[in-house]
Amino acid sequence: MTNSTTVSGLLDGKVAFITGAGRGIGAAAARLFAREGARVVLAARTETQLKTVAEEIRASGGIADHVVCDLGDAASIRAAVDHTVDLHGRLDVAFNNGATNVPPGPMDHVTEADFDHIYEVNLKGPWLSMVAEIAAIRATAGTGAIVNNTSVGSLMANPELPAYGAMKRGVNSLTASAAVTYGPEGIRINAVAPGTTMTEMFGDWVESSPGILERLNAQTPLGRVAEPEEVAEAAAWLLSDRSSYVTGTVLRVDGGMVS
To answer: For residue 157, is it within any domain?
Structure first.
């Protein structure tokens, strides 16, 4: 007689809602979470990207749906979270990954319109998302976990992306406050702070700022950029029951850049 051990996925049986899931870290997270056993709902503004990723996941045997969502719009976020509950009857975990950026440059070069836009998406968006997700978890699964995607640039001066860094630091604060508020209910709130990660958004920065990739790699003890999947792995662990005593943490996934 042969003994066989079945290793369960990190997120087996969980319903996961992911923002910014059409590309970059969000798309990598959607694929990974599905491989780890979650039923995933992908949210972003660009439906063609969402459909492509969801179809890839389904073709690999995963369960994936998508919903168009504008992170600057409270009603849109609420509708996307409600759609997730309508599809699966519950919400267990959420990864608030969606973000935008503005052209790099010193603070006095940031336009007011760009500042307002990055505030709407990168700070107000995660706040609105957490409010909707906590309500859904509370009403269905009862307990659960949320991870916000911030940035290593939120943990130090960020002179080239000052508005971006400020909004991401604000999300760190929201994460800490929410962890204290909702921990007694069994809802854990954490964040990941990626370092240099090879996403489309970062690619745009590399194109506009010659030499930035080499400079950032020189500041990173591991000496390279991260792949989006490496950040997704950290988020998956924080959302899983294997991190059941972790809340209020901003986990650096930065190759040692901040030490």
So the answer is: yes
pLDDT tens digits for 67-115? 999 999 999 999 999 999 999 999 999 999 999 988 889 999 999 999 9
Domain count, the chain: 1
In a domain? residue 107: yes
4 within a domain of the structure (yes/no): no
- pTM of the complete model: 0.94
Write out the two tokens for 108.
């006095």
* Cα–Cα distance measured from residue 139 to residue 185, given in angstroms and rounded to the nearest whole number: 12
The stretches of the chain forming alpha helices (DSSP H) are 24-35, 47-59, 74-88, 112-119, 125-139, 162-182, 200-208, 212-218, 228-239
Q: CA-CA distance, 43 to 49, in Å (whole number)? A: 10
Position 183 confidence tier, pLDDT thresholds 50, 70, 90:
very high
Q: 38 is in which domain, residue-wise?
A: 15-253
**What are 150-155's contacts with CB under 8 Å, separation 24+?**
150/175, 150/191, 150/192, 150/193, 150/250, 151/193, 151/194, 152/193, 152/194, 152/195, 152/252, 152/254, 152/257, 152/258, 154/193, 154/250, 155/193, 155/250, 155/252, 155/258
125 backbone dihedrals φ, ψ, rounded to 5°: -60, -50
How confident is the prediction for the chain on average, in pLDDT? 94
Catalytic site positions: 164
Could you tell me the CA-to-CA distances from 238 to 121, 192, 202, 228, 250 in Å, in that order? 23, 9, 24, 16, 10
2 within domain boundaries = no
